[in-house]
Amino acid sequence: MFESLTERLAQIFRELRGKGKLSEADVRAGLREIRQALLAADVHYQVARDLLRRVEEQAVGKRVLDSLTPSQQLLAIVRKEMTALMGGEAQTLSLSGRPAVVVLVGPAGSGKTTTAGKLARFLSRKGRRPLLVCCDPFRPAASEQLATLAARVEVPFFNAPDPLPGMEAALREAKSSLRDVVIVDTPGVPPGEEPPELLAELVRKVHPGDVLLVLDALTGQEAARIAEVFLPLGVTGAVLTKLDGDARGGAALSVPTRIGRPVLFVGVGERPEDLEPFHPDRMADRILGLGDLQGLVEKLEETAGDELKQTAARVREGTLTLEDFLAQLEAMGKAGPLSQLLARIPGIKGALDDPELERDLRRSRAIIQSMTLEERRNPHIIGASRKRRIARGSGTSVQEVNRLLAQYEKTKKLVKKMRRGRIPPGLGPLNMG
């Protein structure tokens, strides 16, 4: 995510740090480079201009130039203004009404149907009881796709092939089945065309508390222009999809300001769980290469909280076994691709570029899974013959089995130090090399 922009901005701030004391000319030159980086990332020129103007007003002054760490002061100002640019604070759905109605609109191909399924799962995990409704009479197999997603996320589905009377029936169904949120998927609009009158009539009829505009982040600043034709529908917020494939960042930085609506969610993958609330401050941190550790913790807690809590308890007791090793590896696997998880950790870009890393973790899982329960709990009994059997069963080599066991012993030592308060918990299995 945002690899090109993040790397370029990181290089600019590395060069500024290398100068130590900054002159006014240094700051202005650095800001010009940041402006060029933003434009190259397909950020709207007016958005980039306004951002850098506000940064310059604060940066070219005694507070920054006379500080002991002027480059860090400048970075802090850029972070603050970038956060404000993307909306300042995280916004949420209003979910007003009984049932609350959330209508998804947007251009064709932006990912509305997939987003509807993801949103249903997200709200279910928050204790809501959603109903997915297909109001798309035009796209072939639209209802079948949404019905499949509904079954996958274990949410009921309602088809409304004739949208206007169909929505009345859908709302009756929601009330009778005690569903408190109705998520409505609507027809996609071909690029360059106005939304059909059907959409306007639908919005007027159901009075949704939330109208979410679903936009493809890969379109960059063009997403903001595309969004303009949907605003008369009463858009209350936006969802940026395919953000995991966006190396530039133009949409995330341009859309909130240009359309005057907050981004509420971002899609970061194809799985049902790959929908995340949009936090402007965390997004600014990621763009600037500062990571998102809070987001990483939340992701792990959501997908594998129980497993990690049990492992942490055994770590506190000093009884870490290879079963616990496996539990943490499985927990990370549930939370998503390793590259996405590591991207949230500042300064870990080198690990992301290592194609062996994901494979090493898969091998580690295979090795532990090839052990007997007794071997996992008492690794000291694993001799030469057992190692050969484990290597055959896991499709690895004896050397790789030895490496894993050595890493396990190293982690046990770290756990002992951790119990004496010397290091933070949870670091062992992240380094399986």
Question: What do you see in this structure?
Answer:
The chain has 433 residues and is α/β, with parallel strands linked by helices. The chain folds into 3 domains: 3-85, Four Helix Bundle (Hemerythrin (Met), subunit A) (Up-down Bundle), CATH 1.20.120.140; 100-287, Rossmann fold (3-Layer(aba) Sandwich), CATH 3.40.50.300; 293-430, Signal recognition particle, SRP54 subunit, M-domain (434 Repressor (Amino-terminal Domain), Orthogonal Bundle), CATH 1.10.260. Helix content is 56%, strand content 9%. It is built from 20 helices and 8 strands. The chain has an 8-stranded mixed β-sheet, sandwiched between helices. Helix 1 (3-19) packs antiparallel against helix 2 and helix 3 packs across helix 5 (70-85). The protein is flat and about 75 Å long.
